[in-house]
Amino acid sequence: MTLPNTRKEALEKLERFAPQTGSQYALERNYDRGPSSRENVSLLSAAIQRRLISEKEVLQAVSHLHSLEASEKFSQEVLWRSYWKSWLELRPIIWVEYQLSLRNLKRRDFPRYAEALSGKTGIECFDFWRKELRETGYLHNHARMWLASIWLFTLALPWELGAHLFEEELCDFDSASNTLSWRWVAGLHTPGKQYVATSKNIHTFTEGRFFPDGVLNENPSPVSHSPIAFQSPIERFVPFTPSPAKTGLLIHSEDFSVETLDLGNFRPSTVAILDPNLISFRGQKSPRVHQYNQLALKDAFARSSAIFASPVELFTEGTLIEKVQEWIQRHQLQEVVLMKPWQGYFKDNWETLEPLWESLSIKCRTLRRDYDRELAGKARSGFFSFKSELKPLWHRLKNGNKKETVWEVLADSKPAHT
After folding, report:
1. Strand ranges for 178-274 from DSSP E
2. Topology of 7-205 in CATH?
3. Strands 261-262, 404-410: parallel, antiparallel or unpaired by DSSP?
4. Is residue 219 helix, strand or coil?
């Protein structure tokens, strides 16, 4: 099993897998046959998370081969990523509370936590998936759900600690998808709807590899929680218009395929690419994740260097604020442009730079892809309401250009309505 870690590899993988995204995917997607047999899933999640390729490119490739009806299951999986991002963007308190809980839980002792981390619980399937995660940086989506359910309901461990394990070891870790998926399994996302792993389901969809009969807690008590209302303003957008100011373009690991953006006549004075290692993180990324990040970073640097006439720099050492400040001053920049960070670690880090803009009289302009603009602010309830966006989106993408229009994000003075 190999996860594509360059844009070229991801595009090639997409071309090979796209023919399978119709009815065949719907029939096969739930089967976890082990790390040596991943032909039924795309393995593109890590590349999409860093946008080595974009969701638009994936859906366009599928739309040229299948109808929406035939490829609905696969297309919905792509849409889930945007749902989670949009949902968390409207409710940032979830991310804040998760970080606070994680800090407190790390100081406490849980009887089976060490067993779970080491993969020595005695639950054969759980221990196998724990080892697979450590060795490959990947788990089948069904295995992630099973592992999370066993972590919560059989081992009686906090969901936050499980989410943090995935943060450290999944190559396709995404703050929104990971945090909210763990909450969903726990029954905190949809009232009264926990995801409970059963021995029968595991036996069926691992094709008999595992059968933890009588081992799992298959009747857990509901988890009490309070509904979360919208808390953030809905984003407003205007067409991105380059200014005559001396501008630096900053590329980060939430969007590594700048060549897919329609930037018009934008000609940055300088371009900088951020190493994910500059982003402070409460924990330790696994060697597998670190290796993936470095290969993706190297690829982004090579592609960006070929695109822009202006100098392209790679920021790999020091602190984020030191590197950005030195870059601004050395090039005498008047503004910085970047794709707007989503809720998560990079956004947390980036917000610490706000005093820098004022002290250096710098304007910071953030952008969104047209794909994201169309879905922003629409995750107001459950996914089944959100997925109504898929049909009109599908038809626009199918007949649209390959490059994406970009929009500048403006702060909105009106709060989102509950």
Report:
1. 236-239, 247-251, 261-262, 270-274
2. DNA Cyclobutane Dipyrimidine Photolyase, subunit A; domain 3 (1.10.579)
3. parallel
4. coil
What are 258's two structure tokens? Answer: 């700048």
> In angstroms, rounded to a whole number, what is the distance separating the alpha carbons of residues 17 and 29?
12
Burial 104-131 (b: 16+ CB within 10 A, else e): ebeeeeeeebebbeebebebebbbbbbe
CA distance 198 to 212: 8
Q: Which CATH number fits domain 236-410: 3.40.50.2000, 3.40.50.300, 3.40.50.620, 3.40.50.11930?
A: 3.40.50.620
Q: How many residues appear in the chain?
A: 418
pLDDT, one tens digit per residue, over 342-393 is 999 999 999 999 999 999 999 999 999 999 999 988 998 889 899 999 989 8
CB 242 within 8 A of CB 267: yes
The DSSP symbol for 192 reads T
User: What is the per-residue pLDDT across 177-215, written as a single tens digit (0 to 9) for each?
Assistant: 999 999 999 999 887 789 999 999 999 999 999 999 999
